[in-house]
User: Fold this.
Amino acid sequence: MSNVRQKDYGTPASRAEATVTLTVDGREITVPAGTSVMRASAEAGVGIPKLCATDMVDAFGSCRLCLVEIDGRRGTSASCTTPVEAGMVVHTQTDRLKKLRKGVMELYISDHPLDCLTCAANGDCELQDMAGAVGLRDVRYGYKGENHVFARDNSGETNPRFMPKDESNPYFTYDPSKCIVCSRCVRACEEVQGTFALTIENRGFASRVSPSMHETFLSSECVSCGACVQACPTATLQEKSVIEIGTPEHAVVTTCAYCGVGCSFQAEMRGEEVVRMVPWKDGKANRGHSCVKGRFAWGYATHKDRILNPMIREKTSDPWREVSWEEALAYTAKEFRRIQHQYGRTAVGGITSSRCTNEETYLVQKLVRAGFRNNNVDTCARVCHSPTGYGLGKAFGTSAGTQDFDSVEHTDVVIVIGANPTDGHPVFASRLKKRLRQGAKLVVIDPRRTDLVKSPHIKAAHHLALKPGTNVAVLTALAHAIVDEAIFDESFIRERCDWSEFEDWASFVSEERHSPEATESYTGVPAGELRAAARLFATGGNGAIYYGLGVTEHSQGSTAVMALANLAMATGNIGRPGVGVNPLRGQNNVQGSCDMGSFPHELPGYRHISGGETREIFEKLWGVELDNEPGLRIPNMLDAAVDGTFRGIYIQGEDILQSDPDTKHVAAGLDAMECVVVHDLFLNETANYAHVFLPGSTFLEKDGTFTNAERRINRVRKVMTPKNGYADWEVTLKLAQALGLDWNYSHPSEIMAEIAATTPSFGKVTYEYLDKMGSVQWPCNEAHPEGSPIMHVDGFVRGKGKFIRTEYVATDEKTGPRFPLLLTTGRILSQYNVGAQTRRTANVAWHEEDLLEIHPHDAEQRGIVEGDLVRLASRSGETSLRAKITDRVSPGVVYTTFHHPDTQANVVTTDYTDWATNCPEYKVTAVQVSPANGPTGWQRDYDEQARQSRRIEAVEPAE
Amino acid sequence: MSPDKLIYMANQIARFFHSQPEQEAAAGVAEHINKFWEPRMRTQLFEMTDADNEGFDPLVISALSEIRRPEVQQ
Ligand code: SF4
Ligand code: SF4
Ligand code: SF4
Ligand code: FES
Assistant:
């Protein structure tokens, strides 16, 4: 076990710079001031017995097991709550201490079941360890007295103290009979997760842990992050997978494959079976925390729906036919060559996956550029954060977030706009909430009252509940207020930006039409509130901006990103800890897929394809001449397909039919192609239109790297053999070989070596270096050997920061009599993106279907009551789903998620896109809502089509 | 793609650059289209504007001279 369990120092590390030297059991040790005696001892290699302390949370000092004697002090001191002092001499083992500790343990054990041998925590229980450590050999009090252990006493009477097991949560159990009331779980839920779902109810001997108001875990506020389970020293809170399988025997550090936070995990294994995933304390993105997805929702990796054999079919109306890898790859290669021969070199392309590794993404774009000899490569970032790349690139010279997540610990004022981090980026949200509880101020700009606006111990100073589609107007009005009240940071601007550009911008935003008063009528944001928010941000200390898809997925997405950059520069909030402009990225490797040259106009490292020097680097290495023209973006590919000039596509790990807007248009495009190759874990929705299916592998089955939203390159490590036979990089490699390319990689580290050799911001990145450093943030090269937690420290990447005028242009998607409501979309915690993975885990316990949130006023007008099936219609199409009536949305606004294919919210979204990047306008669609009596015609047709196209031909049994 | 959609996309770009300083506007539109529009889209743009300018924002028209004409498609 020792190689699996992460070391627990008992109390959190101190951040102090000053150090203190003391002596513990004759060993001299120097630690930062403020460190506890317990932690100092642990660092010196002395393990003091403890139960209520863990380094996940602040010390509480309740169990009295950790007592020590300190020279010159009378009595004993709890080492977890006693800070070190210079010259202190500590003794951890004396006769007096031994006796005291035995007494404490005896009391604990007298109210604890003695079924250690069959307990799920056997071998991984701190109570057991401590009983051993203090030499407990018998319990004088016996087990007859008052207890929480037995349901009935000897005479058969029910024991009022006994509480049955709570097994309601799909992933862990709560067995109150084993609880020692150390409150570690309660503190973890408060301090680490910030949900405050647990309390200790009652007092003294009667006290017990209780979720919310004595509810079950599942029906409580609990978001199933697992922090309490990790904190629990006993089997009271225990992963069901451990109960089922047993304790793990080895552990491998890897990275979560769900969201852009990029949490580090210890995959705890028994052979090739995952026993549990436990957040890794040394992970720099998550610092030992996680959310329900990464912690628990990995069961999809072994789900029965996974397709493990390659399949082909000539027509999409045929059933699938299972074939060998050789046949599938040869068929694909032949088809792509035929199409290129028949329709031209540019008639094929590929889509890289932001769920796959950097190495895999790099190979797909290389396949397109060097193998297909064109630049028709794009990625799902097109539909989420492409405006970030464009906007930040223009303003700062680089297309990525400016900070690391640790930066939030130094922030005084936070603007969260168009993001719902408690659902979308939960671990970052926990870190943000921690800072807010310490007193930082919060401004939320969002049409919907997200959880951050008000939750336990958190309240936003200002919630600007703007009308969907008016981001740029609101942001420009904020700039107006800042310039108007002359609260910009002149010295920063003079030093770091071009003063005359600033003046031009300042005079633009100062125009009366941009004032909060003038914009109020169409943004819906009260001018006074907006001005107060501007004042707070400009004058409240370190100001940081965090934003999400609610900013980018608009027809003015790129303009809004530039407006955010303007605000940060005008207030001097760039280039140090606690500030910055930070995109919260959706999928785990969106950042990486952008870095790796997934866009049709850019080679890896954001270098435009027209640049001869950059092309030459790759041309030399790859031995081919590269096309110097930009390729097609996803929506352009679909248009070209309908026009007949684009006929074949290789899609790795994306479900464009479900994730891209205007489903009908996507379907028409795919339908017009002659060879659609889907490389994925499951028969996803896009596969309904595919001719070739190549089975994919999960993050547990491959080596590689993911880059998270803070530009952090994290290692992904293989813990099991790919069930489908090959890791995804091997599949692309084999496809390239089938196409006649002379590629030879025997391990992803060789692909990383090629990336480092060609891409300056990755210059120093190797697998050995990542093993040594844990992780690094790019740029990581000779100039920044340790990587770059914060960017633009001494100057902007582009030289001077650029102020850009941001004129508000109302979207053409307008409400009217037929479609009077505005629909905006989002996501929820337990599901991920289109849900292909999470829907195949027990996470469905929290989200069985997509719901339409509608304001009571709008619902009443339409005669809709809670839970009604309603028809949601736009100019593009219609779907039906159930209504949830809530004042979280304003009148006139409705909201839904897009996790379930049955709902197909994107049937109703339109094909309007961002002016600069063609990022779809998901966040604003004019709709009408009315009562429905069943699925819409489209939903029925779609179901039937999906059922037909998923048929797999029965294989003749081999003789 | 449909001519209407192409006009729409070009005009959307022009709308952003209208608000930029005047001397940068046309060059901005041209640079943007050169950087991000695949040759097929630029070919279609020229096919349409060679016939007539109807529907296009005047800024798109004044940017035309700086937009690269793709070589004839193979
Ligand atoms: S799982 Fe997380 S949210 Fe739920 S009770 Fe435990 S710590 Fe709190
Ligand atoms: S459930 Fe576990 S962590 Fe919570 S009080 Fe009981 S023993 Fe301690
Ligand atoms: S989904 Fe995101 S926040 Fe949750 S564990 Fe994975 S990386 Fe962390
Ligand atoms: S560990 Fe110090 S009092 Fe419990």
